[in-house]
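During the reporting period the student researcher (J.K.) took over the structure-prediction task from the postdoctoral fellow and processed the backlog of single-chain submissions. One of the processed entries is reproduced below for the supervisory committee.
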Amino acid sequence: MAQILHRQTRELIHTFTPEEISSRTLSGLDLTCADLSKKNLTRFNIASCHLNGASFDGSKLDGCRIQNSSMRNCSFCGASLTGANISDTNLDLSDFTKALMGKIHFRHCKINGATFVEADLKESDFSFSEIRSNFQKAELQKANLYGADMSNGDFSSSNLEGANMTQAKILRAEFKFARMQGSIGTNGRIWGASIKASHGKRPWWKVWDRAAV
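J.K. obtained the following structure tokens:
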């Protein structure tokens, strides 16, 4: 893990210092298109870095915190990000195919045009985020999607059981074959629950009048 190379040119971008390794901190670095695949960045704190186009394929980022960084078009295929916090970040066009991301925090993120196919997102937090992306076959059980913009997203064959979609935007989103049991819809009610009209009780004389006819 001592060096970071450019994922395409293979030029040296950065060499980890002993201080960065011991403190588990990367700060203020230009790591555009960096090859960070198959690296152990567990519980690292990454702050104010340029990471657009970087590859984290197969890496361990469990408990990692990434803040004030640009991360468009990154690749996290097969990576592990359990319990990570990547809130308030632009991750448009990124690829999270088959990534393990249980209990991850994506609050207030922009993740449009991204791929989450077959990703494990159990108990994840996407509240107030833009997630107009591909979630086909994703595991989203008990996910927090409160106020999220899911418009035009593809949730086909995904598992949304117990997910909270209160006040979410789902215009033109696709839910074909999605599992929705116990999930909360945009109106704050259990998905698919009907609203019974309340007519109130009729006065006794109307009941008698009806019976007399």
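The committee noted the following: Confidence is low (pLDDT under 50) at residues 204-213.
J.K. will present the remaining backlog at the next meeting.
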